[in-house]
């Protein structure tokens, strides 16, 4: 057949080659093997017969039977070529699809395990750190407690020796504590400083002291408030009494030193010196700097106490000591003053009035409340102390004509606190203003013979008290 139709032979070869090429490469060795030769030939014959039928069908094409054969042949060819490939592709696809899914699931599980492991580690670390901090905090807290407790006790309860201590003029509580610690009188200067603050202990005096390590902080504080024997080498001691004004302080300085009163008064009027002091003590003098109509800006701010004077000391040095002392005392009250919506100038002004209007602590606290009641009602304070200061005189009685003096310090004709302090008040009077005794009084009068103070809520009651205890 191949001789008669060489073109068919060529076509058959093409079909065979196509079939052979579609087979997997693994089948090629089998066809070349001598063992399986017969089997391959039989297979090739079957394929050849199929191919012949297909070729014949294509050439004869017109009959029904041929068309059927052609369809069968075509179907057989398609099934032979495509069916195995399709099955193989599906299996491989399933395997390929399953592999990433399984791999992703395994990785996710591994990540979860790693996260859980990390969480456990972090939790353990946090627990250890917290426990460590608690232990350290407890140890530190206990150590601080023991240190403070021991510092509040005498340094050596059994000691019988005494130690000479010099407290310089103008020393603050903190500086005094440091000196006592250096001289081995107390254990801690810092604890001493806080002890004095918490107990509102002020008014410590400069001078020479003899302390013992067996003394408590309370005993040491009382001695410091009482004053020492004077600093060794001091040329003089200046004692400023409570309730004196700048004019009187000038007399004291001129009497006990070689400094002239006029020089002192000039310094009190020196605005440059005041500004220098304000920069040094802003909490104390800021409100005084804003005041208008004052005679002396530093009136009320030269604290009544005893000061050491040296021939080498300048006038500015002496005044600075007095201002520093006032600041040391007032530092315990700055926060309270802010809470009461007042300023230092107002507190010192009322305290300077209370200082002279009352004698006992009880009366001073009542009088302070009377002044607050009158200010709240818009009434003038009507204090005779303000008239005497306005007049610039010191006398026992104030007459009606004196009440008309033209001065911003006249609190009969002017309402409010007035320009500023009238004298240097004591700490007791300052405390009375900051902690007055509540009452509903608007008037008070003192018996000129006994000094006892009587209070009234109405003007009629007050007039009756004046008639009884003053005019008789």
TrEMBL record:
A cellular-component GO term for this protein: plasma membrane
Reported function: Functions as a peptidoglycan terminase that cleaves nascent peptidoglycan strands endolytically to terminate their elongation.
Q: Which UniProt keywords apply?
A: Cell membrane, Cell wall biogenesis/degradation, Lyase, Membrane, Transmembrane, Transmembrane helix
Its catalytic activity?
A: a peptidoglycan chain = a peptidoglycan chain with N-acetyl-1,6-anhydromuramyl-[peptide] at the reducing end + a peptidoglycan chain with N-acetylglucosamine at the non-reducing end
Residues covered by region (Disordered): 1-108
Q: Where is the composition biased (Basic and acidic residues)?
A: 1-15
- Give an example GO molecular function: lytic endotransglycosylase activity
Which organism was this protein described from?
Enterococcus canintestini
* Site label Important for catalytic activity, positions: 357
Q: How does it sit in the membrane?
A: Single-pass membrane protein
Q: Which spans does this entry mark as compositional bias, Polar residues?
A: 32-42
**Domain of life of the native organism:** Bacteria
Q: Which PANTHER family match?
A: ENDOLYTIC MUREIN TRANSGLYCOSYLASE (PTHR30518)
Matching entries from Pfam families are given as: YceG
Q: Membrane-spanning regions, if any? A: 121-145
What GO biological process terms does the UniProt entry carry, in alphabetical order? cell wall organization; peptidoglycan biosynthetic process
CDD domains membership: MltG_like
NCBIfam families xref list: endolytic transglycosylase MltG
- E.C. number(s) listed in UniProt: 4.2.2.29
Membership in a protein family: Belongs to the transglycosylase MltG family.
Give the UniProt subcellular location, in the record's own words. Cell membrane
Name the record gives this protein:
Endolytic murein transglycosylase
Q: What class of enzyme is it?
A: lyase
